[in-house]
Specification:
By secondary structure, the protein is of the alpha+beta class. It has one domain: outer membrane lipoprotein receptor (LolB), chain A, CATH 2.50.20.10. It is built from four helices and 13 strands. The protein has a 13-stranded antiparallel beta sheet with strand order 6-5-4-3-2-1-13-12-11-10-9-8-7, sandwiched between helices. A hairpin with a 5-residue loop joins β5 and β6. The protein is globular, with a radius of gyration of 20 Å.
Length: about 270
C-alpha cells in the first residue's frame, strides 16, 4: 500500500509540474513598457487596420542576383501577403488564419501554389512590426522578456525575447504545447534611443523537419515619417546569415480597406 501511495504521489507531482509548465509566465514590466513605447511610436497615435508597402526588391540566392519590385500587404488581424516580381518570374507568399491555426501558401514563377508547412507559420508577420507588437501586447499567451541592452550591427539596442505558451487543452490538433512554444520564439531588438525596431530574429525550418533551425534575421532601417508615423524604407531579410532579400520601400498606404479575400490561401 505504501508503495502504491508513493507511486501515486510521484504521478501527481509530475502532472502538477506539467500543468505549471503550460502556464504562460507573466511578461516583464520593463519589456512590456518598451514594446508599448515602440508601438505608440510606430502607430503615430493613430489606429491601423491594414497597410500596403511597395517598392524595389533585390533577390540574392547563391549566384543568382536580380532586381525587381515588391508589394507587401498586411492586416492588423495577422494576415500578410508578399508579391515579388523579377525577370525570372513572380513569387508570392501568403499567410492567413484558420480555426486550426495559421495557414499559408507560396508560389514561384510557374504560378503553382504550394502549402507552407504549419511549423513555419507560428512566428508573426515579419515586415510590419506595428501589427506584430499590438498582437504581442494584447494576447496573454505571449510572454515578453527583457534580455538587456546590447550592440547589434553597430547599433545600441534593447533586446526582448518572445515566447508563446499554449495550454494542453487549447493547442491546435497534432501539436504539443512544448513544440509550439519552440516554434513561435522570436527575438526583437529596439533602437535604444528611438525604440524603433532595428531587427527581428526567428527560426525557419525545412518543410519535413521542424527540429532543424534555419536562422532568419530581418533588419529595419532608414525610417521616414509617412502619414504621421515612422516607417522603415529599407527592409533586409537574411537567411542563415546571408542577405537573401533587400527591399527599398517607396510608397506606404495605410487603412485602404484591404479585403480579407486578398489573403486566401490556395
Amino acid at each position: 500500500m505504501r508503495s502504491f501511495r508513493f507511486v501515486l504521489l510521484l504521478v501527481l507531482i509530475a502532472f502538477a509540474k506539467a500543468a505549471t509548465a503550460q502556464q504562460a509566465t507573466p511578461s516583464a514590466p520593463q519589456a512590456t513598457a518598451l514594446l508599448q513605447q515602440a508601438l505608440a511610436t510606430l502607430s503615430g497615435g493613430h489606429p491601423l487596420t491594414d497597410v500596403t508597402l511597395s517598392g524595389a526588391a533585390q533577390r540574392i540566392a547563391g549566384s543568382d542576383d536580380e532586381s525587381g519590385t515588391v508589394v507587401l500587404k498586411a492586416l492588423a488581424t495577422g494576415e500578410s501577403r508578399v508579391d515579388l516580381t523579377f525577370p525570372s518570374g513572380p513569387g508570392t507568399e501568403i499567410r492567413a488564419n484558420s480555426a486550426t491555426g495559421p495557414v499559408g501558401s507560396w508560389s514561384g514563377p510557374d504560378g503553382t501554389s504550394h502549402p507552407i508547412s504549419q511549423h513555419n507559420l507560428w512566428t508573426d508577420s515579419w515586415f510590419f512590426q506595428a501589427f506584430t507588437f499590438a498582437r504581442l501586447l494584447n494576447d496573454p499567451s505571449y510572454t515578453i522578456s527583457y534580455v538587456g541592452q546590447e550592440t547589434r550591427n553597430g547599433q545600441a539596442v534593447q533586446h526582448l525575447n518572445i515566447i508563446r505558451t499554449f495550454q494542453a487543452t487549447g493547442a491546435p490538433t497534432g501539436w504539443s504545447p512544448a513544440s509550439l512554444q519552440n516554434l513561435s520564439g522570436m527575438d526583437i531588438y529596439l533602437d535604444s534611443t528611438t525604440y524603433l525596431p532595428a531587427a527581428l530574429l526567428f527560426n525557419a525550418h525545412p518543410d519535413l523537419n521542424q527540429t532543424i533551425n534555419i536562422p532568419i534575421e530581418i533588419r529595419f532601417s532608414n525610417y521616414q515619417q509617412t502619414n504621421g508615423a515612422p516607417v522603415p524604407l529599407r527592409i533586409q531579410k537574411y537567411l542563415n546569415n546571408s542577405l537573401a532579400l533587400d527591399l527599398q520601400i517607396t510608397a506606404v498606404s495605410p487603412n485602404t480597406g484591404i479585403p480579407v479575400s486578398t489573403f486566401n490561401v490556395q
